[in-house]
Amino acid sequence: MNHLELEQVLNQLLNSDKINDYAPNGLQVEGKPQIQKIVTGVTASQALLDYAVSVNADAIIVHHGYFWKSENPCIRGMKGKRIQTLLKNEINLYAYHLPLDMHPTLGNNAQLAKLLGITELFPLEDTPNSIPMWGNLPQAISGAEFTQRINQVLNRTCLHCANDVNQPIRKIGLCTGGGQGYIDLAASKGCDAFISGEISEQTVHSAREQNIQFFAAGHHATERYGIKALSTWLAENYPLDVEFKDIDNPA
What we know:
This protein is an alpha/beta fold. It has helices at about 5-15, 45-55, 75-90, 100, 110-115, 145-155, 185-190, 200-210, 220, 225-235, and strands spanning about 25-30, 35-45, 60-65, 90-95, 120-125, 135-140, 160, 170-175, 195, 215, 240-245. Helix 8 links the parallel strand 9 and strand 10.
């Protein structure tokens, strides 16, 4: 497939043109024009780039790419080495941040909800392009039971904040990665619990004072599944060799 054709396919699938983001979505670093072998992963770290080189990949697709609005624009140091690796080996780099969080079936939120048994996702914000979502468990379970489920599914020990871990939960808000700031919105919408990847100091007080249970399950751990689902979709719909590579990250 031509590298620009792949970008068009991904842009259309993920509706990236309609979403305001903190970094450019789509083809960030241009490489060879024809693509057959693709490596996907959560973050375009040097380890992922080196793996892509080792398997002769033509392209890399990630959730966390480069050129964030707040970062230093200079191509030097760690950033310089990463981009040199891509250019030297003519590897295309595609990145999709919020579009891959928000997609109704392939997105990080949708995939995490599916894994945890949360059904019927709805926007938590009063907008069609809501980043956080909410849904219901088929039956209420205790916060302690839900903690065990998260730990088993993600193979990661989550941090659980609750006034009473045995209190039942059913309506659950979620926003993968660094979405802990939406806990107040989740509480205002009547959620029993809120799940994200990270936790801030003030998150604990919000959970306690609003009696909403909070689960911090890891930024990386909650965002593995959108890019993995996208990889499967590409391999099923196009004659491409697509490989998801998980570079472990305890954060």
